[in-house]
């Protein structure tokens, strides 16, 4: 067996120890004689798995009691609709558009109400986070929405916008659990799990209780109502059991890394290795504005499309997978999520240095 260094933006690298543990438990989960994939979601064993996962997540993020944690199928993209559908009171939704994901969320919200774009960085190909001091929150906004880390362009918010008392909704898909968060600053904090937490197909939504409609929303499908998940501990129907189980293992792994404080230090160190190299490189340049640089997704270019393609091909041959950039930025992108080992980033920098010495 040989594992590559996988720089995929998602689905992405998972901690090796987690995968090994899952492999060991595949045929017989802790003496119950079956895989977690095969057991009833109503069984006591699975109840233990989902409750422990939630408890560990609450501990890691310091989630207050007045927030619900929900495991929801449909990935982050389904949340683009569930958020306006569930938070709708006046029907005015404010969005800050800092990349493709917030743009998609904004467009989806427009199907359900008056979605307003407060600021956008599209004019600069989303290479920066818009000026937050210039935003004017609508008086009657139901919420203000951001994508905290734009996966494709490699930008992140280092400060949160002043929402003038309106609930802040944040998509944290690509920075989930990468550093500590103050959950109380958000009304909703959510993400698809396949970037930084587990297998694809599920989102975790952490929603302040007062934002969850108390009554059934007659015109919203039952599976799209937060109330359904909140009232039933995410077990109204069969949840993605195996995904929840693996996420739970990743939460345990994160606790071993020193929780989110520990993870942040590791992530800053790893990202620093790559950015420091890029900043002095004669061949490669990072594309995102320095102040807004992501710790997780790092796009870079040589400025020459052919050379970029050559770099991607040669890096692949050397065991570095998925470094090709997204088509809307071009060049390369290294996604260095929590589970990317420091050695992977060190090896990548060494490889880039070597490539540079031949081509610069
Ligand atoms: C990947 C991604 C999404 C989409 O996630 P799906 O689970 O595929 O729906 C949304 N937002 C961000 C920031 C992402 O990185």
Description of the structure:
This protein has 360 residues and is of the alpha/beta class. The chain has two domains: 16-256, Aspartate Aminotransferase, domain 2, CATH 3.40.640; 258-359, Aspartate Aminotransferase, domain 1 (Alpha-Beta Complex). The protein is built from nine helices and 14 strands. It has helices spanning 16-24, 44-61, 75-87, 100-109, 226-231, 241-256, 259-280, 305-317, 342-359, and strands at 5-6, 67-73, 92-97, 114-120, 141-147, 149-150, 155-156, 168-171, 188-192, 202-208, 285-286, 297-301, 320-321, 332-335. The strands form four sheets. The chain has a seven-stranded mixed β-sheet with strand order 2-10-9-8-5-3-4. Strand 3, helix 4 (100-109) and strand 4 form a beta-alpha-beta unit. Helix 2 (44-61) packs across helix 6 and helix 3 (75-87) packs across helix 4. The two termini are 35 Å apart. The mean pLDDT is 97. Bound molecules: pyridoxal-5'-phosphate.
Summarize the structure.
The chain has 360 residues and is α/β, with parallel strands linked by helices. It has nine helices and 14 strands.
CATH class of the largest domain, please?
Alpha Beta
Share of β-strand residues: 15-25%
SS-based class: alpha/beta
* Shape descriptor: globular
Q: Biggest sheet, open or closed, and with what strands and sense?
A: 7 strands, mixed
Bound molecule kinds, no repeats: pyridoxal-5'-phosphate
Order of helices and strands: EHHEHEHEEEEEEEHHHEEHEEH
Uncertain runs are: none
Give the number of DSSP strands.
Answer: 14
Strand order of the largest sheet: 2-10-9-8-5-3-4
Number of helices: 9
Helical content band? 25-40%
CATH superfamily of the largest domain: Type I PLP-dependent aspartate aminotransferase-like (Major domain)
Mean pLDDT: 97
- Using the CA coordinates, give the radius of gyration: 21 Å
For the record, the count of structural domains works out to 2
CATH topology (fold) name of the largest domain: Aspartate Aminotransferase, domain 2
The assigned CATH architecture of the largest domain is 3-Layer(aba) Sandwich
Alpha-carbon distance between the termini? 35 Å
């Amino acid at each position: 067996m040989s594992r590559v260094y996988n720089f995929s933006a998602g689905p992405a690298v998972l901690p090796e120890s987690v995968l090994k543990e899952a492999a060991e438990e595949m045929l017989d989960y802790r003496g119950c004689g079956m895989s977690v994939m095969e057991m009833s979601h109503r069984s006591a064993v699975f109840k233990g798995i989902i409750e422990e996962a939630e408890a560990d997540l609450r501990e890691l993020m310091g989630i207050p009691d007045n927030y619900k944690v929900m495991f929801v199928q449909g990935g982050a993209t389904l949340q683009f609709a569930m958020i306006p559908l569930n938070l709708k009171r006046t029907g005015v939704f404010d969005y800050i558009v800092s990349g493709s994901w917030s743009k998609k969320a904004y467009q989806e919200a427009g199907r359900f109400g008056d979605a307003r774009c407060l600021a956008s960085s599209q004019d600069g190909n989303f290479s920066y986070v818009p000026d937050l001091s210039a935003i004017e929150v609508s008086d009657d906004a139901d919420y203000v929405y951001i994508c905290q880390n734009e996966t494709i362009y490699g930008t992140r918010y280092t400060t949160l916008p002043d929402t003038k008392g309106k609930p802040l909704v944040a998509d944290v898909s690509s920075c989930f659990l990468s550093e500590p968060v103050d959950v109380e600053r958000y009304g909703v904090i959510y993400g698809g799990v396949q970037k930084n937490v587990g297998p694809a197909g599920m989102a975790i939504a952490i929603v302040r209780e007062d934002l969850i409609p108390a009554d059934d929303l007659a015109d919203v499908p039952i599976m799209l109502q937060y109330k359904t998940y909140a009232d039933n501990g995410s077990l109204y129907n069969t949840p993605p059991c195996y995904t929840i189980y693996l996420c739970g293992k990743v939460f345990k792994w994160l606790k071993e890394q020193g929780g989110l404080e520990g993870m942040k230090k590791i992530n800053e160190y790893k990202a620093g290795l790559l950015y420091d190299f890029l900043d002095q490189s004669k061949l490669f340049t990072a594309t995102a504005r320095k102040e807004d640089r992501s710790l997780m997704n790092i796009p870079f270019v040589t400025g020459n499309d052919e050379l970029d393609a050559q770099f991607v091909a040669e890096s692949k041959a050397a065991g570095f997978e998925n470094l090709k950039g997204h088509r809307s930025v071009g060049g390369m992108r290294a996604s260095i999520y929590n589970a990317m080992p420091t050695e992977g980033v060190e090896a990548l920098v060494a490889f880039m240095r070597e490539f540079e010495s031949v081509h610069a």
